[in-house]
Amino acid sequence: MSTRHLRSVPPEPAPLPAREAEIVKAVQEDVIFGRIAPGARITEDALLARFPATRHLVRQALFQLERMGIVVHERNRGAAVRSLAPDEVLELYALREMLQRQAALAIPVPAPEGLVARLRQLHEEYSAHVEGGRLPGVHELNDRFHLTLFGGCGNRYLVETIALYMRKSFPVRAALHISQQVVGGEAGAHADRAKLELSRSQHRTMIELLEGGDRWALAQLCVEHLQPSKRDYLERIGAGPGR
C-alpha cells in the first residue's frame, strides 16, 4: 500500500528547452517576489531586450507561463501578470480548502514510513532555504512538500487537481513574499521571516500528525495553512479578509 501512495505524486512535466526555461523561471520569480505586480504587462520586446532569445522562444515562454496560470493574454494588451478580484480569491480558496481537506482525510494514518521519511527530508531542505534566506528555494520546496504530502492520499487525479489550483493561486501565494519587497527595511524583513517561520512550524506539525494518526487535525491544519496568503492578498488589494 505504501508504494501506491508514494507513486501518487503528479509526474514532473517534460523539461523545457534551456533558454525557454530560463525565461519562465525569471518571470515566475519576478512575480512571486513582487518585482512585477499583478496586472502588470509583460511585453515580448521587454523579454527580448532582457534575454538572448528569439521572438518565437519568448512567445513559447509566455505560452508556458499562461498554462501555469501566472500570466493571461488580454485583448489589445498582450500578456499581463494574472490578477484576481476578491470574489475570485474567495472562490478559488474555498475550492482549494475542499480539495486539500479531502486529500488529507484520505491519507492512511499512521502514514507509511517511506512517506514520512520523504517529508522529513523535504522539510529539512525547506528549513535550510528559510535559514539561508533563499526565497526561490523556499517556494520550490514548499510546493514539493505539499504535493508529496497529498500524494499520500492515493488518488493521482485529486493530487493533480490540487497542483492545478496551486498554480492558479500563484498571484495570491506571492503575497507571502512581497512584504519584504514593498515595505523594505527591518520591519518588512521581520514580517516576511515570521510568515516563513509559521509555515515551517506547520509543516513540522503536519509530519507529526501523520505519525500520530490524527487525520482530522491534519485536515484542519492543511486548511489553516492556506489562510495567511489569502488574507494578505485581500488586504493588499483593499478587500480585507472578511469580504
Summarize the topology.
Elements: H1 2-6, H2 18-32, H3 44-50, H4 55-67, E1 71-74, E2 78-81, H5 86-106, H6 113-132, H7 135-151, H8 156-168, H9 170-173, H10 175-183, H11 185-212, H12 215-224, H13 227-236
Antiparallel strand pairs: 1-2
Helix pairs in contact: 2-4, 3-4, 5-8, 5-12, 6-7, 6-11, 7-8, 10-11, 11-12
Mean pLDDT over the full residue set: 83
Compute the number of structural domains: 2
Spatial separation of the terminal alpha carbons: 43 Å
Integer-rounded radius of gyration: 18 Å
Helicity range: over 70%
Q: What is the name of the CATH topology of the largest domain?
A: Four Helix Bundle (Hemerythrin (Met), subunit A)
The largest β sheet comes out as: 2 strands, antiparallel
Give the strand order, joined by hyphens, for the main sheet.
Answer: 1-2
The CATH superfamily of the largest domain is identified as GntR ligand-binding domain-like
- Hey, roughly how much beta strand do the residues contain? under 5%
Question: What is the structural class?
Answer: mainly alpha
Shape: globular
